Amino acid sequence: MIVCSILPRDPAAALAAMRQAGAAGADAVELRCDLLEAADLRAILAGKPLPVIVACRPAWEGGRWRGTEGDRVGLLEEACLLGADYVDVEFKAYKDFPRREAKLIVSWHDFEATPEDLDGLLARMAALEPLVSKLAVTPRSAADAARLVEAQKRAQAPAACVPMGDFGEALRPLHVRYGGFLTYASLGPGAETAPGQPSIEELVRDYRAKTVDDETKVYAVLGDPVAHSRGPAVFNRLFRDLGLNARYVRIRVDDGRRLRDVIRAWELCGASVTAPLKEDARREVDEVDGTAEAAGAVNTIVAREGRLVGANTDAAGAVGEILDAARRKWRHGVYGLRALVLGTGGAARAIAHGLAAEGARVIVAGRTPERARALAESVGGDFLQLSRLIEARAQVICNATPVGMGADESLFPKELWKADCVAFDAVYTPRATRFLREAAEAGAETADGVGMFLRQADGQAKLFLGRGFPAELLNEFRRRM
Ligand code: NAP
């Protein structure tokens, strides 16, 4: 059940919000009465267009109610008499609450942390025989979020485990997949009544949360941060177009040593791995393919018969884009050309190995000299300090650092660009980075991170599903992103 939570100041605002929530696809509304009075409640419940959960949160449970505790409980009792469909009573405040016809939700909120004994807490709440026990807590790590998912899966009685904040946010659209009874959404950005609430539109339209069931196959992007990832947009569109009961979510993972636990807890069929976990992923999987082995970095994990198989689609994604740009410029590939790679992380390793395999002479430059030297040696190339890029004399210049993402900066000095070269930037937010703009101004041919992203996603789809993206869909994303 998808519940849109609202915190209105008067009946007119409440009824307008309820109609909006219903139109956006909410199954019910949580009417937070913190700012209302009993008279308002009567008018609202008389005109409600959707089933209503009445809640009234005191300050000690993260709410805005400023009256007495007696009046607050009185308001909730009144709600039952006035026809509320559900009433939400805090476990800490529960004393033989007269629920009458209303169905009872017993709730526990923790805005600081995730309690240790989640199973015990759910069992104590379930002993009150509510319709559902709701546990809204704050995971502080991927491990906390995994514990919350596991508690949801193990719950013996109807339960709703709700993550507040971004760790574990995927449990919101996928609650049914793990046995959850309901999930909460907001009317839109700025209208959240608790941390981490997605908009109702995001749940219903982007994640198709209404058709998630216990058979839904789950894929995810794992990294830290993951909020910027375009993975959910492209993969969920692919799954929808192919008619697959599958969803792709973001899972923030703050510790690479937790990758296996995360994959197990969320029962992932496959995952994209992003910074800074690609080298950890190489260590955590059971086997790797040749590209991942060569690059020492895994950006794709497939769970196959209990084993985790690692692959790397970044190399093919980046090199494919670079080769296309090189052919536009010179009508041949990069064989025998000097290729400068800026950076020494997961993307840089994949690009350096991919270009070396195409016969390019690779030069690596990074801010950590030992890493640059080691990567250069692994591809039989040279290394340079970032302050001496003029010595690279490269025809292919690749940025594989995050420089240019967010801030309008470039590691490659503007005056060194020439018309006779190809520039490639792995950064894709923004698409037209300063690095690429300055290269284009000098007449260089350019290839951007969006192209790489789509090619590597296509490679991942082949590994996840045995088939890639339809060409029209890739072209649509190339135009739109
Ligand atoms: P990573 O493993 O964390 O590596 C980042 C690299 O950038 C490291 O070598 C780091 O140097 C270097 N670096 C960071 N900040 C720097 C700075 N201010 N000056 C100089 N060097 C700096 O990350 P990654 O996975 O390789 O990703 C790198 C970039 O590529 C990111 O922007 C990512 O979004 C993008 N990417 C795009 C795609 C795509 O499909 N388009 C795919 C993968 C990655 P140290 O080692 O010294 O810290």
Walkthrough of the structure:
This protein has 481 residues and is α/β, with parallel strands linked by helices. The chain has 16 helices and 20 strands. The chain has helices at residues 11-24, 38-47, 69-81, 118-126, 142-154, 200-206, 231-242, 259-265, 278-284, 290-295, 314-330, 346-357, 369-378, 434-441, 449-465, 471-480; strands spanning 2-6, 28-32, 52-55, 86-90, 103-109, 132-137, 159-163, 183-185, 217-223, 246-252, 268-273, 287-288, 300-304, 307-311, 338-342, 361-365, 382-384, 396-399, 422-425, 445-447. The strands form three sheets. Strands 7-6-5-4-3-2-1-8 form an eight-stranded parallel β-sheet, covered by helices on one side. A six-stranded mixed β-sheet has the order 10-9-11-13-14-12, sandwiched between helices. Helix 11 packs across helix 12 (346-357). The model has no long low-confidence stretch (mean pLDDT 96). NADP nicotinamide-adenine-dinucleotide phosphate is lined by residues 275-276, 278, 314, 317, 343-348, 366-368, 371, 400-403, 405, 411, 426-428, 449, 452-453, 456.
